[in-house]
């Protein structure tokens, strides 16, 4: 019921924005002005992927449009957790109850860019998708730039899907896979094919990651196995005033409370499935450690993953845990790239390690890691979080990583360069959309190579481009 109320609230706000625009309210971009763009997504929770993506989106689009021509703002749910991020960009607070914020903030800008990856799906929270649709829909209703940049679509509940089809039909969604394009096209939403935007991210130098591992007991020689677990079963998050009242009055629903009026899915079935997942991973890691000498660490690339990491650590007698609670995105990705093998249920735990050619396997809860592994040609390294035989599958995948690492790294390198080219193509699509919306905007002149549409990249990526182009 609360999801329905939120969707109705946002839909009403979009309709009012459209009516106001038709009556002459609001300002359109004029020649000589800086193009003010609002970047919408799930920032400020120390979700490494959700912070890396806007970082690189902002860098790329500022590079393409010209820093002197734009003024960027990005949403953050917690300024303390995004301090030091998004250089040169104003941060604006996204409250949990967001409809008034969207109605107030979007008219201040000339367009909206959604940088959220899991933008159009009900898997995690209808509220997030409603916020994304509300952002794009409000901008489009005012005849402004409305672009989804590297977004993904999955199953949406019927009302959210209807809302998406209605209010995003005048947006452009550049998806990160063909499957998302197919789904959105069925809803009448214009799309182009792109990719994720994390491929160009540059963390702290490798020395930082190696030292962090050594400080946690690594001898500097033994191969390091990094594992990124999650709780895949307590989604979606939904608002509930009943649970909120009970939580405030009696302390009930403590374990499933996300924040304010939002709660994770909970119950015996959730707890049992989570325990089976943790036990399967722990048993596979234990068996692998008996076969091979490795240093195993656990990494929570999202604050919410700390519980899963500590549970596995306890099952194996105490393993080091690195968490985004304590390490920012520059530090944590450096640690990931210092590893030698990775098994991850976090999409960006894999993506951000790939430029360092770290062999990786995926334990997936949805289509994101599945699509990535298929793209790499590594479906033998893919498992599902609810596989009845997850333990032997993971053990077999770890053995494959250990024995075929060089071959796997070659496939990873080719995939990184392929996605860099797709990311550059996204920049072209974006530039063309800006020109379509604002023909007088001063875009670049002359001939440009595909690499000119990427933000500045480090020597490692230049080396991969030389090897695999």
General description of the model:
The model has no long low-confidence stretch (mean pLDDT 95). Helix 5 links the parallel strand 5 and strand 6 (172-175). The strands form 3 sheets. A 7-stranded parallel β-sheet has the order 3-2-1-4-5-6-7, sandwiched between helices. Strands 13-12-8-14-15-16 form a 6-stranded parallel β-sheet, with helices on both faces. It has a 3-stranded antiparallel β-sheet with strand order 9-11-10, covered by helices on one side. 46% of the residues lie in helices and 14% in strands. It is α/β, with parallel strands linked by helices and 469 residues long. It is built from 16 helices and 16 strands. The longest helix is centred in the last third of the chain and has 33 residues, at 405-437. Helix 1 packs parallel to helix 4, helix 1 (2-22) runs parallel beside helix 5 (158-167) and helix 9 packs parallel to helix 14.
Shape: globular
What profile does the largest beta sheet have? 7 strands, parallel
By DSSP, the count of extended strands is 16
Query: Residue share in helices?
Result: 40-55%
* Radius of gyration (Å): 22 Å
- Major sheet: arrangement of strands: 3-2-1-4-5-6-7
């Amino acid at each position: 019921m609360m999801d329905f109320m939120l969707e109705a609230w946002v839909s009403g706000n979009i309709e009012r924005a459209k009516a106001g625009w038709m009556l002459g309210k609001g300002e359109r971009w004029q020649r000589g002005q800086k193009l003010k763009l609002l970047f919408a997504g799930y920032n400020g929770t120390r979700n490494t992927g959700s912070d890396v993506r806007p970082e690189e989106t902002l860098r790329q689009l500022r590079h393409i449009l010209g820093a002197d021509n734009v003024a960027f703002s990005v949403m953050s749910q917690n300024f303390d957790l995004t301090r030091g991020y998004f250089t040169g960009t104003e941060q604006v607070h996204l409250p949990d109850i967001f409809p008034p914020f969207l109605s107030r903030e979007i008219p201040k800008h000339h367009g909206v860019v959604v940088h959220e990856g899991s933008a159009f799906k009900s898997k995690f929270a209808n509220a997030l998708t409603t916020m994304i649709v509300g952002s794009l829909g409000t901008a489009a209703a005012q005849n402004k730039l409305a672009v989804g940049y590297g977004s993904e679509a999955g199953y949406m509940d019927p009302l959210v899907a209807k809302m998406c089809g209605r209010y995003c039909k005048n947006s452009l969604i550049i998806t990160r896979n063909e499957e998302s394009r197919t789904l959105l096209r069925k809803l009448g939403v214009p799309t182009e094919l792109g990719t994720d935007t994390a491929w160009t991210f540059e963390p702290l130098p490798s020395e930082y990651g190696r030292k962090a591992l050594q400080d946690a007991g690594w001898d500097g020689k033994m191969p390091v196995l990094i594992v990124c677990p999650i709780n895949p079963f307590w989604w979606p998050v939904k608002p509930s005033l009943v649970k909120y009242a009970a939580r405030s009055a009696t302390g009930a629903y403590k374990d499933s409370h996300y924040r304010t009026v939002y709660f994770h899915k909970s119950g015996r079935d959730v707890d049992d499935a989570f325990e089976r997942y943790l036990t399967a991973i722990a048993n596979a890691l234990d068996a692998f450690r008996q076969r091979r000498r490795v240093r195993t660490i656990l990494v929570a690339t999202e604050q919410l993953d700390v519980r899963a990491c500590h549970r596995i650590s306890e099952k194996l007698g105490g393993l080091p845990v690195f968490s985004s609670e304590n390490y920012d995105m520059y530090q944590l990705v450096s640690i990931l790239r210092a590893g030698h093998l990775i098994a991850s249920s976090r999409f960006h735990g894999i993506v951000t390690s790939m430029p360092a050619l770290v062999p990786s396997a995926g334990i997936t809860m949805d289509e994101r890691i599945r699509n990535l592994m298929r793209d790499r040609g590594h479906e033998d390294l893919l498992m599902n979080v609810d596989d009845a035989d997850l333990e032997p599958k993971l053990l077999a995948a770890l053995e494959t990583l250990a024995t075929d690492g060089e071959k796997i790294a070659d496939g990873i390198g080719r995939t990184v360069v392929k996605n860099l080219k797709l990311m550059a193509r996204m920049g072209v699509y974006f530039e063309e959309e800006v020109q379509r919306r604002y023909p007088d905007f001063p875009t670049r002149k002359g001939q440009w190579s595909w690499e000119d549409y990427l933000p500045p990249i480090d020597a490692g990526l230049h080396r991969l481009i030389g090897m695999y182009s």
